[in-house]
Amino acid sequence: xxxPGLRERKKRARTGAIVDAAQRLVRDRGLDxxxxxxxxxxxxxxxxxxxxxxDTKDDAVLGQQSLDVDDDAVTAFxxxxxxxxxxxxxxxxxxxxxxxxxxxHDRARRAFALMEAEPRLLTRHVAxxxxxxxxxxxxxxxxxxxxxxxxxxxxxxxxxxxxLRAAGDGWERSGRAGELTxxxxxxxxxxxxxxxx
Length: 197
Prior knowledge:
Elements: H1 6-29, H2 36-43, H3 47-50, H4 57-62, H5 71-78, H6 86-100, H7 105-117, H8 119-146, H9 153-173, H10 184-196
């Protein structure tokens, strides 16, 4: 995977500034007292620019954007690659997804703390996950057209989300050692071990 260009780095920096502003305001004032206009002002952007990055204020607080997966990774996965073995390819896709997610580990921790304080945010997070699980099921369906597998697309997307979640849990248990991507391989290895028992 290549390093992001200047434009992408600027986009990520602005995204981070919006999330930081939203999280700070909600922590200090509560979710209901915070508006998109207030977040935009705190981040130094216009409300119109805000909507180029996030659909709602809740998404900004959680740092939830569209799930952008690298075009090359999608093309390889849909074509039945990059290895031709489904679980190995899920590992590659999960690693790529975690590597390109904008944001920091601190932002993610703050988002989870705010979900505990503001249950409506948890509801939005679950809805966001479901939206993207359906998108990822589409990738598995497209792959099945070219490389048939004995796995239902919905089940495949759930496996991918399980790997992502397990990697995150492993990273937390390790005291947040290294990068999230370091924990994808062990998550897949644990899944293989369960399948063998």
